[in-house]
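hi! just following up on the protien thing from before. the input was this:
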Amino acid sequence: MACEIPLGEYLDGELAADARRLLEVHLTDCAECRRRVDLERAFKEIYTTPLRPEEAPPDVRRRMMQWNLESYRADQSPNQVTPPEFVAAEHLDRLTMPVLATWGTLDVTSTLRSGEWLVANLPGIRSRVFEGVAHMVNLERPAEFNQMLREFLDESERAAR
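and the predicted 3d structure came back as:
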């Protein structure tokens, strides 16, 4: 069973001095908590420092993919159908710029259905479905995603000239 420690407060410097000292003593004895602190620091670094996805520590990328899969699988019933609700759907015909939609086959059902709906109802949209990927396509397949995005942006720029 994991220890209950206030990781966020500790890393943000929000713990009182005595609580901080107690936690640091605990960390000298608990390898699992030290690992959690290191992982949390890596997450914070990724979200506060501009990094290319391929520069993210491999353990962090692996953990994020694992969490995504666990989350999506836990929340989804087999063949669950959730009809998409598009508040802005009636305004899509006003879009004048190129549109690219991406999602993964392991994403939540509502996202899958929404993507399919957009492709069917938005003329000129480009889409890409990533096999075996959940919602964070750019983190799960950074090289493939970046190449696709570069090509889309290059084509859009050429078309705008």
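Helices lie at 7-11, 17-29, 31-48, 58-75, 109-121, 137-140, 142-160.
The mean pLDDT is 79.
cheers
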